[in-house]
Structures are given as C-alpha cells and as structure tokens.
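STRUCTURE:
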C-alpha cells in the first residue's frame, strides 16, 4: 500500500515531521536557556544558605521542610536528559528552577531569624552592658575588657545582618568569652547599681558598702553624682 503513495506526499510527510522535530528542539532549547538563567541566579544564594546551615546544624539551625516533589522532580530532570523522555524532563527542570527561585527567600528568612535568635541568646546580655561600659569608662578594673567587648559587639552587629560564616561564629565566641570575663570582674551588686544608674537612675539604697568600695578601688566613683528625684523603675539582678 505504501508503494502506491506518490513520492511527493512521502517527501512532504518527512519534511513536516522534521519541521515538527525542529520546533520541539527549539522549544526545548529555549526552556533550557530560561532554566539555566534562573538557576544561575538562585544557586549562589542556595550555596551560601547551605554553608550557613552546615555551620548551624545541631546548634541554631533546625532546617526548613522542603516539598519532596521538588527533589523528585530534580532527580528526574537530571536523569531524564539525553533519553527519550528528554522533552518531558526538560520541562521538569524548568519547573524545578522556578520552585527553587520561590523557595530561596523562605530559606533565607528562616535562617536569618534562627541566626539572630541564637546571637541574642549568646550575646543579648552583653549587648545590654553597653550602657554600663559607657558609665564605667575609665574604671581601672574593667576598662580594657569593656573596650574589647564594645569593639567585638560592633563587629557582631555588622555580621548579624547577613548569613553567618566561620568568622561570624568566631566573633560570637569572642563576645561570649569577653562577656564572661567582664561578668567575673563586675560583682552582682555593682552591676545592679550601674545598670540602674545608666537606665534611669539608681536609688541610694543600692550604693551599699560593697558597691562604694568597688567604685573607689576601680577609680569609677567620680563617674556618678547624686541628683534629687525619684529614679525610674528598673529590673534588679
């Protein structure tokens, strides 16, 4: 039967088939270009998120649930290229690129929130000591530690605004160590008095013998003066 088909009809069929294949190939090519551009934009950020997550795994990062279908589609897109399912899997690759682009902001927001919460848990009290350090500037017993702590807190504040790296964790450890050292040199009664004085005024009852002796011994007594008035309500301890 096929032998009865005119030659020109057969040639037309072949030409149409080849044209259709060319159109599909062009569509596949354009899809791959789009996916490549989208992946090129999001992959560096995902790599940065991965590095931060590795640093925080088991410490401050608990991860974010990802749709299992995304990973399955990525596997299919990778293994399908070059096979008879090539066109289908290339479409999956395009879909994967779009999903990753939408996922990246969620991952970054979650990681940044977890990092900031961890920093606050490790250095929150140290940050509150900024006012104490200003009031106690020049105090012989703690001036050096206070200065170092203040400088480290400044570096940490800058690092806190971006995803953490190894340097970020080093600075946080430095702040924690300096905070512990400063706490060791600052008796609880002195901390209560100075904190109250720096945040609204301290009542005279807080200036007991221990506080007065410490202020005199550390050359900080001249940093304070008595003024009339009711001090603001402050938290002790």
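SEQUENCE:
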């Amino acid at each position: 039967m096929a032998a009865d088909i005119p030659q020109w009809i057969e040639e037309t069929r072949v030409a149409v088939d080849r044209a259709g294949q060319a159109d599909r190939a062009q569509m596949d090519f354009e899809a791959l270009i789009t996916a490549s551009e989208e992946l090129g934009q999001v992959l560096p950020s995902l790599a940065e998120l991965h590095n931060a997550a590795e640093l925080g795994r088991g410490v401050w990062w608990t991860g974010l649930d990802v749709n299992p279908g995304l990973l399955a589609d990525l596997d299919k897109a990778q293994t399908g290229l070059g096979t008879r399912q090539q066109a289908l899997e290339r479409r999956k690759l395009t879909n994967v690129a779009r999903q990753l682009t939408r996922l990246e902001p969620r991952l970054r927001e979650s990681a940044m929130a977890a990092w900031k919460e961890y920093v606050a848990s490790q250095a929150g009290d140290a940050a509150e000591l900024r006012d104490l350090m200003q009031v106690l500037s020049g105090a012989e017993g703690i001036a050096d530690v206070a200065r170092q702590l203040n400088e480290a807190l400044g570096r940490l504040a800058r690092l806190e605004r971006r995803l953490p790296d190894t340097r970020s964790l080093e600075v946080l450890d430095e702040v924690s160590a300096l905070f512990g050292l400063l706490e060791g040199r600052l008796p609880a009664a002195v901390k209560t008095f100075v904190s109250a004085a720096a945040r609204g005024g301290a009542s005279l009852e807080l200036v007991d013998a221990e506080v007065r002796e410490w202020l005199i011994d550390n050359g900080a007594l001249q940093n304070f003066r008595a003024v009339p008035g009711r001090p603001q309500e402050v938290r002790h301890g």
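REMARK: The chain has two domains: 11-121, 125-218.
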